[in-house]
Amino acid sequence: MAPNNAHTALWPAPHASGAVDATVHVPGSKSVTNRALVLAALASEPGWLRRPLRSRDTLLMAAALRAMGVEIEEGMGPEGTGEAWRVLPTGLRGPATVDVGNAGTVMRFLPPVAALADGPIRFDGDPRSYERPLNGVIDALRALGARIDDDGRGALPLTVHGGGALDGGPVEIDASSSSQFVSALLLSGPRFNQGVEVRHTGSTLPSLPHIRMTVDMLRAVGAQVDTPESGGEPNVWRVTPGALLGRDLTIEPDLSNAQPFLAAALVTGGKVLIPDWPARTTQPGDHLREIFTEMGGSCELTEYGLEFTGSGAVHGIDVDLGEVGELTPGIAAVAALADSPSTLRGVSHLRLHETDRLAALTKEINELGGDVTETADGLHIRPRPLHGGVFHTYDDHRMATAGAIIGLAVKDVQIENVATTAKTLPDFPDLWTGMLGK
Ligand SMILES: O=C(O)C1=C[C@@H](OP(=O)(O)O)[C@@H](O)[C@H](O)C1
Ligand SMILES: C=C(OP(=O)(O)O)C(=O)O
């Protein structure tokens, strides 16, 4: 009998019979939730996270902090307005074991926190987590005074032997493979004895909006941060040592997870409203307003949220996605359905994401009849009439949502392991069918 567990199960991607017209409430941001958890755990007083994302990546972050002694309670928020987590920071301690799953934020943001704990903290995760780069964090922490045992590959698994405090100070790293190296050091920086000065030495630095998100959230809890954008040296970020405040923070919807729903409006010539789209945000998903407009839609940001409307036409695009790499799979899916070719550039680091996203997108779109080629730093996509088939996801949530976008326009697409969307959006299948009124 054929196995039918979540991994091998095939989900028939719904085909859109007409233009979508829906309001979709998108759950909280993964990147904001996991930063907020770390900052609340490092604070000197309790804090609240309202409307946190509850997904595999954020539940792993919460579990890891709890394992190090932090209390995270379920609550209703200070005014009883909606569900919340109350975070009670305590002295961080080991021994503890952290399962990072395949969460970049957990595997990169927590080793610096562990260096501040008292006792050994062991880090392990999914097989893919062993292949994702961590050398920037490991080497920097050692240079700043931490003791770490690893197998010498600059990757997981490893043990951080927390000494209860860390000297900190200046450090050089090459963060060209992941902006999360910089964010990781900055987030814990206020708790290092001398703070931290991070100097990026590589030739490129991806995902700058995510570094801005780190800086903004640090400042919001009282940290002093100097950045290249605030008049400092290029590629240098400096965090002054000091106590962090416990805050009451409402988590914004995840705008990168809004992407497939906006794409649905674009490819069906329909209309989607995403309530609570923030007027100002550091989330990279906010760039979809320009990118999907260039690809044929239009949008309006009102007091109700973002209303995105497709025109019925979908155009190709030539775009550098280096700042917003996590949007690439969804843009590639739309580009495969466009009326002209696309070139997506600046994203070679995607080869080290949840899977090699450039190879996976090329293979899966081409297996449906597409014409995609990999370049040194991205993809060329020449739209072709596509046909049904199995779209493999390689344990990558954004491959699953990319396949679902294609399925709207192409009959009989089956997504293998749609359950992998639980990494950041466990409700995806229900939200998707709800959007389509199925
Ligand atoms: O800091 C963050 O929350 C993230 C930073 C980016 O990582 P990379 O710079 O490794 O691409 C992004 O792709 C990831 O989804 C989330
Ligand atoms: C790259 C991503 O995740 P991670 O936080 O695991 O790096 C992503 O969500 O697209």
Automatic annotation (TrEMBL):
<feature type="binding site">
    <location>
        <position position="180"/>
    </location>
    <ligand>
        <name>phosphoenolpyruvate</name>
    </ligand>
</feature>
<dbReference type="InterPro" id="IPR013792">
    <property type="entry name" value="RNA3'P_cycl/enolpyr_Trfase_a/b"/>
</dbReference>
<keyword id="KW-0808">Transferase</keyword>
<feature type="active site" description="Proton acceptor">
    <location>
        <position position="326"/>
    </location>
</feature>
<keyword id="KW-0963">Cytoplasm</keyword>
<feature type="domain" description="Enolpyruvate transferase">
    <location>
        <begin position="17"/>
        <end position="430"/>
    </location>
</feature>
<feature type="binding site">
    <location>
        <position position="178"/>
    </location>
    <ligand>
        <name>3-phosphoshikimate</name>
    </ligand>
</feature>
<feature type="binding site">
    <location>
        <position position="353"/>
    </location>
    <ligand>
        <name>3-phosphoshikimate</name>
    </ligand>
</feature>
<feature type="binding site">
    <location>
        <position position="179"/>
    </location>
    <ligand>
        <name>3-phosphoshikimate</name>
    </ligand>
</feature>
<comment type="subunit">
    <text>Monomer.</text>
</comment>
<feature type="binding site">
    <location>
        <position position="207"/>
    </location>
    <ligand>
        <name>3-phosphoshikimate</name>
    </ligand>
</feature>
<protein>
    <recommendedName>
        <fullName>3-phosphoshikimate 1-carboxyvinyltransferase</fullName>
        <ecNumber>2.5.1.19</ecNumber>
    </recommendedName>
</protein>
<keyword id="KW-0028">Amino-acid biosynthesis</keyword>
<feature type="binding site">
    <location>
        <position position="132"/>
    </location>
    <ligand>
        <name>phosphoenolpyruvate</name>
    </ligand>
</feature>
<feature type="binding site">
    <location>
        <position position="326"/>
    </location>
    <ligand>
        <name>3-phosphoshikimate</name>
    </ligand>
</feature>
<feature type="binding site">
    <location>
        <position position="35"/>
    </location>
    <ligand>
        <name>3-phosphoshikimate</name>
    </ligand>
</feature>
<dbReference type="InterPro" id="IPR023193">
    <property type="entry name" value="EPSP_synthase_CS"/>
</dbReference>
<comment type="function">
    <text>Catalyzes the transfer of the enolpyruvyl moiety of phosphoenolpyruvate (PEP) to the 5-hydroxyl of shikimate-3-phosphate (S3P) to produce enolpyruvyl shikimate-3-phosphate and inorganic phosphate.</text>
</comment>
<feature type="binding site">
    <location>
        <position position="31"/>
    </location>
    <ligand>
        <name>3-phosphoshikimate</name>
    </ligand>
</feature>
<dbReference type="GO" id="GO:0003866">
    <property type="term" value="F:3-phosphoshikimate 1-carboxyvinyltransferase activity"/>
</dbReference>
<dbReference type="InterPro" id="IPR006264">
    <property type="entry name" value="EPSP_synthase"/>
</dbReference>
<feature type="binding site">
    <location>
        <position position="423"/>
    </location>
    <ligand>
        <name>phosphoenolpyruvate</name>
    </ligand>
</feature>
<feature type="binding site">
    <location>
        <position position="398"/>
    </location>
    <ligand>
        <name>phosphoenolpyruvate</name>
    </ligand>
</feature>
<dbReference type="Pfam" id="PF00275">
    <property type="entry name" value="EPSP_synthase"/>
</dbReference>
<comment type="pathway">
    <text>Metabolic intermediate biosynthesis; chorismate biosynthesis; chorismate from D-erythrose 4-phosphate and phosphoenolpyruvate: step 6/7.</text>
</comment>
<feature type="binding site">
    <location>
        <position position="357"/>
    </location>
    <ligand>
        <name>phosphoenolpyruvate</name>
    </ligand>
</feature>
<dbReference type="InterPro" id="IPR036968">
    <property type="entry name" value="Enolpyruvate_Tfrase_sf"/>
</dbReference>
<feature type="binding site">
    <location>
        <position position="180"/>
    </location>
    <ligand>
        <name>3-phosphoshikimate</name>
    </ligand>
</feature>
<comment type="similarity">
    <text>Belongs to the EPSP synthase family.</text>
</comment>
<feature type="binding site">
    <location>
        <position position="30"/>
    </location>
    <ligand>
        <name>phosphoenolpyruvate</name>
    </ligand>
</feature>
<feature type="binding site">
    <location>
        <position position="104"/>
    </location>
    <ligand>
        <name>phosphoenolpyruvate</name>
    </ligand>
</feature>
<keyword id="KW-0057">Aromatic amino acid biosynthesis</keyword>
<feature type="binding site">
    <location>
        <position position="30"/>
    </location>
    <ligand>
        <name>3-phosphoshikimate</name>
    </ligand>
</feature>
<dbReference type="InterPro" id="IPR001986">
    <property type="entry name" value="Enolpyruvate_Tfrase_dom"/>
</dbReference>
